Amino acid sequence: MSTTTIHLDDELKRRVANAAEQCGKTVDEFILDAIAQHVAQVEHDDEFHHLADRRWARLTAGGESVAWEQAKAYLEARARGEQPNRPAGRRRVR
Predict the structure, then answer these.
(1) Is there a single domain that holds both residue 11 and residue 57?
(2) 92 and 53 in one domain?
(3) Residue 22 and residue 25: Cα distance in Å, rounded?
(4) pLDDT at residue 18 in the model
(5) In three state form, how does the secondary structure of the chain look?
(6) What's the whole-number mean pLDDT along residues 68-85?
(7) What is the chain's mean pLDDT, rounded?
């Protein structure tokens, strides 16, 4: 395992130590967990944005969509246990 040095001002160092103690972890464990969680969140966000970009590209390339009002009414009816007809997709108007 490699070593990385970080510089914390006294206030942040105190806050990290307090938070680590509350979690029952050492400061090193707390910092490693915080970094790992942040990296995972950034990776998750990146995957989400790539998925959104792919879906938008597919939609703008001629895919069909459903107006939000129709989709919402359909989902609300399903949530009430009803069996509504699925709203018809429509081509995007440019």
Answers:
(1) yes
(2) no
(3) 8
(4) 99
(5) CCCCCCCCCHHHHHHHHHHHHHHCCCHHHHHHHHHHHHHHHHHHHHHHHHHHHHHHHHHHCCCEECCHHHHHHHHHHHHCCCCCCCCCCEECCC
(6) 97
(7) 95
